[in-house]
Amino acid sequence: MKKLLLYIGAGILLLSACHDLNLNPLSSGSTENWYSTETEVQMAVDELYRYDFWPEDGQQQTDWSDDYTSRDLLTSFDDGTLNGQNAWVTSLWGNQYKAISRANAVIEKSHRAIENGASAATINRLIAEAKFHRAAAYAKLIVKFGDLPLVLTDVSTEEGLTMGRTDKSIVLAQIYKDFDDAISVLPTSYTDQQRATQGAALALKARVALIMEDWETAADAAKAVMDLNIYELHPDFGNLFLSTTKTSNEFIFKIPRDATYDIYLGTGNGGVNQVYNDLPRNVGGWTQTCPSWELLAAFTCTDGLLINESPLFDPHEPFANRDPRLAETIVPFGSNHLGYEYNPHPEALTCMNYNTGEIVTNYDTRANAQYASFDGLVWKKGIDETWLQNGFKVDQDIIYCRYAEILLTYAEAKIELNEIDNSVLDALNEVRARAYGVDKSDKASYPAFTSNDQSTLRHQLRVERRMEMAKEHMRYTDIIRWKLAEKVMNRKTYGILYPASLCTERVTSQGDWFWAFTPEMDEDGCADFSKLEEAGKCQALAVRSWNDRQYLWPIPTTELQINENLKQNPGY
User: Fold this and answer.
1) Neighbours of 487 (CB within 10 A)
2) Mean pLDDT across the stretch 522-549?
3) Distance between CA 148 and CA 268 in Å, rounded?
4) Whole-angstrom Cα distance, residue 288 to residue 369?
């Protein structure tokens, strides 16, 4: 485990040293004598776990979805101006093809180690890992760019510059083949390491199949994960995401972090800024990136109904009578968060410091601090006191795939196939019952799924997935594949009236805090706050502008400039 962390953080300096000495970069294959021992092959495979090769989907600071706000700022995705020079576009393309190239080298050349006496079983397992990484890299690319150059061997620069785009159906078939090859060889678990396993290969195969709307493959792969009988939901939803939770039977694949090795949240992406952005101001954070009002509205009430349907919802007390995951995802008003009372009310000029027992200035209201949360919301999911320690270096592992996603994937695929049976309802109820801290069989203790209607379950599944997976970088892909982006990304982002005196005059003095009335909601749990704005009860922070071309990302401009056989996606 320690060796793997060192390789992740350093990019295996020994391999870089070989590059310097032999003038033959790993990205173009290997040195003439590399991959000749088990150690060399192991090191090459370990490098494929580097963070650059495993970006969390939508890990951009505002997540590129309607679950986030970033004050009054917009990304190029938010305002419809995404182009081939965007750093996230070029980074994803470049890094995944680096991973593919390095995986290809392992797959092609590791026979040298066997010829030199290395264990064939060990080398074949490492080759299977390389195929897992190659499949995962192509999966990340295909869902963003569509048709892709399919490179399966070590090619020269000259050959690479003549390659065009392969139809995505062919690329998808290769992804499946690589995952299947890995599944047939990889173990189901390791005793002391976090590496690709049979379950991880099945899980990522299920994920890409779901995104590509190959429902049957998605359902079969998800069911195969379930049938391994080695994964289960963590008993405590909130605890699952803390940096102190390093092991859980819910984890299927994750990338480790360890501050001891200077590998922490934000490494390689602006240092610790990502941590400061998520923290409230009372503890020294910036509240740059915050949960959106749309996300707050999406959580169902404890009767399982959307807020516009449930008699339990009170817009003045938006955290009351809600799905328990809400309070584990967004900090409830008036609660103790990181040792301070969290209260964004414009008249809450002071708050309790629970660490000292003193009343102190409240910097989480915009009445005192202009850059407190613009919409009054801050993140709680995965955040605890460890975020304030060790110089704000947070070593939460990247939970790339967990068992709850598999249950939801299985349910969604079966719903889309219209093969709705008890296994579908059981999968959904297992996820929801965990949120309420009860067994799924105790249906009187939580709002269980009961419908067998395809349309009803489809929309309920979408809301459930949003509640369960919030802040896990899944929402971007969901709004793309469900074709919701053209709706939700064409709406404004909303927040509290500013200056604070205006909020007091128009909202709090009239008893209308937090929301004056319930926003309009559609069946997918997407909220519309335009009527609150028209009533003068909130303000628009920014105006999103969607462009349908962004259902696919543009091919990086530099790639088009050096290879005339690559053609751009429509609209760019």
Assistant:
1) 16
2) 97
3) 26
4) 13
